[in-house]
Amino acid sequence: MGTPQITAPSRGPSPVPGDATPSSGIIHVNSRHAAGFTVIGNHLAQHRGLSLTAIGLAAHIQSLPAGARIGIKHLAERFPESETRIAAALRELEAHCYLHRSRLRLADGRIVTRTVSYNQPGITTPTPHRQPTAAPTPPRTTTPAPPPVAAPAPTPATRTTPPPPPLPQPQHLTPELLHTATTLLAGLRRHTPQLVLSEHDVRALAPGLATWLERETHPETIRHALTTDLPSPLKHPAGLLRHRITTLLPPPLPAPRTIAPAHRPEATVPPLQNCDGCDRAFRSHHPGHCRDCRTEQLTAA
Fold first, then answer.
1. With the CA atoms of 280, 282, 286 and 287 taken in that order, what torsion angle do they form, in degrees rounded to the nearest 10?
2. Spatial distance between the Cα atoms of 59 and 49, rounded to a whole number of angstroms
3. Cys staple from 283: which of 56, 253, 258, 270, with CB 3.0 to 4.6 Å?
4. d(Cα 93, Cα 101) in Å, to the nearest integer?
5. DSSP letters spanning 27-73
């Protein structure tokens, strides 16, 4: 008899229990890890009280080796989240007992932060390593420290920032002032490409710039004040211009000084008198003869 032919396909690998294909929802394609993996409990991965940022951060921390740096600045350099968001996620993990941070003073006087990560809330915190002393001390029995009590997440302090000062307003907003201010603002991008303003921004800032023009500020002086020493990169050109228009506003020019004329005594006009000799009128403070009659009297004498 010939050798029997095997026509049936070889049996595939047995499916992982629980990997049956559902009729709807997510479909898992799982492969068992042999190395380089971290076990994360569903109590963390499916936690209803933690944000996605906190869950992901806890998974990352549990995957790190002992002694790895997990400071806020270090994590902000590693991930795209901001320091504020990472700090809030760390506070969430502390509040739900997945993380415990404490401040310790070393033998050399330095103060460091000691961080303990729990893959299961409620585990006893390990006793910190102590520096050896010159004289050995007899061992003593210590009782395990109680599990940390979940503390409410600290409420971030509300920062009361004062509102920005109002934009200056001219005393008399004439159409000419408004047109000149609008043209100057819209044309800033010709000299400085970073200062591109929308129509809304130009209309909002024009009254403040009209105040500069009302105070007899030359347009070239205004352009220099608004475009010099710009930050790089410039993220909010309208906000920067509003700040400079408000804080760099020059004072009004002083009124021209009027010099009072020197005091001069008013000239008094002598009254009219009738000459005693010729009865002709002449001006004098005292009655008598006119000049001609006085001359004739002196000649006759």
1. 0
2. 15
3. 270
4. 10
5. -------SSS-----HHHHT-SSS-HHHHHHHHHHHHSPTT----HH
Bridge-based pairing of strands 272-274 and 111-117 is unpaired
Residue extents of the structural domains in the chain? 42-117, 175-247
Beta-carbon neighbour count of residue 96 at 10 Å?
Answer: 19
Give the distance, in angstroms, between the CA of residue 155 and the centroid of all CA atoms in the same chain.
22
Q: DSSP code of 144?
A: P
pLDDT along the chain (301 residues), means of 10: 50 51 82 86 89 91 87 88 91 89 86 86 61 50 60 60 85 91 92 90 93 92 91 89 92 77 69 81 82 78 63
Q: Cβ distance 67 to 116 under 8 Å? A: no
Q: How far apart are CA 112 and CA 106, in angstroms?
A: 7
Grouping H, G, I as helix, E, B as strand and the rest as coil, residue 111 is: strand
CA pair distance 196, 165, nearest whole angstrom: 23
Cβ atoms within 10 Å of 97's Cβ, excluding its own: 17
Are the beta carbons of 163 and 200 closer than 8 angstroms?
no
**Residues listed for the chain:** 301
Rounded to whole angstroms, how far apart are CA atoms 243 and 205?
10
How far apart CA 195 and CA 184 sit, in angstroms, is 12
- β-pairing verdict for 281-283 and 272-274: antiparallel
What pTM was computed for the model?
0.36
Report domain 42-117's class. mainly alpha
